[in-house]
Amino acid sequence: MKNNPSDLWIDISDIPEKGLNLELMKDASFFETEEADFRVTKPVSIHCNITKVGDEIYVRGKISFTIETNCSRCLVSFTLSADQEFKVTYLSATMRPSDEETELTRRDMHVSCYSNNRLDIILPVRDQIVLAVPIKTLCAPDCAGLCSVCGQNLNIKRCGCYKSEEINPGLSILKELKLRNNR
Fold first, then answer.
1. Which end of the chain is less enclosed by CB atoms within 10 A, N or C?
2. 23-49: per-residue pLDDT in tens?
3. Does 71 fall in a domain?
4. Is 127 a member of any domain?
5. pTM
6. Would you say 118 and 9 are in contact if contact means Cβ atoms under 8 Å apart?
7. How far apart are CA 96 and CA 108, in angstroms?
8. Residue 91 CA to its chain's centroid (Å)
9. Could you give the CA distance from residue 79 to residue 71 in angstroms, rounded to a whole number?
10. Within a domain: residue 25?
């Protein structure tokens, strides 16, 4: 991340008993990451409710974002907008398990730690953006992809590399099998 997310730190003492509602718009640059195959292109909308119960802080919310990525089939760049609900439980760093190996539970997948009576909401939001992006991004559900012979984008134009009569030599035995079953 390029920006210093210090303005996304929430002081625990600022959370009233009834909870704290936040509505934020954060610049896309807050969510830049070199590990991802996409780029956040518009400000991210963050709506969340923060409640405190003892030393545990609960954050429930929704983010809305737009990314630019490449189609997994045709490699064309396109934008994808999404809304993602999230929840995170923050524990005091003093409650964190020791550094020795421990087995994670389902609950641990939504746990972060805070220290110095402050919590950072940018990291869980960035994680939610990464998790919301499909592994295989498609510009359209019916994307035809690229021709494996010449590389032509088949959404734009058919290339004619494959004719219906041509069969991969390795698969020709299947045609013979089909013909034998029809007799």
1. C
2. 989 998 888 877 788 999 999 999 999
3. yes
4. yes
5. 0.71
6. yes
7. 11
8. 24
9. 10
10. yes
Q: How confident is the model at residue 2 (pLDDT cuts 50, 70, 90)?
A: very low
Whether 49 contacts 18, CB under 8 Å: no
SS3 assignment, position 16: coil
Q: Which two tokens stand for residue 89?
A: 């439980």
Domain of 15 in residue numbering reads as 5-132
Please state, in angstroms and rounded to a whole number, the distance separating the CA atoms of residues 137 and 35.
16
The amino acid present at 123, given as its one-letter code, is L
| pLDDT at residue 5 greater than cutoff 50 | no
Residues 46, 127 contacting (CB under 8 angstroms): no
Instruction: Determine the length of the chain.
Output: 183
Range with lowest mean pLDDT among 89-93, 99-103, 111-115: 99-103
Query: 136-151 burial string, b = 16+ CB within 10 Å, else e?
Result: ebbbeeebeebbeeee
In the chain, the number of structural domains is: 1
Cβ–Cβ < 8 Å for 22, 60: no
The closest of 57, 20, 27, 69 to 45, measured between CA atoms, is: 27
The percentage of the chain sitting over the pLDDT mark of 70, rounded to a whole number, equals: 78
Residue 48 token pair: 């969340």
Cα separation values, 60 from 15, 30, 156, Å: 14, 20, 43
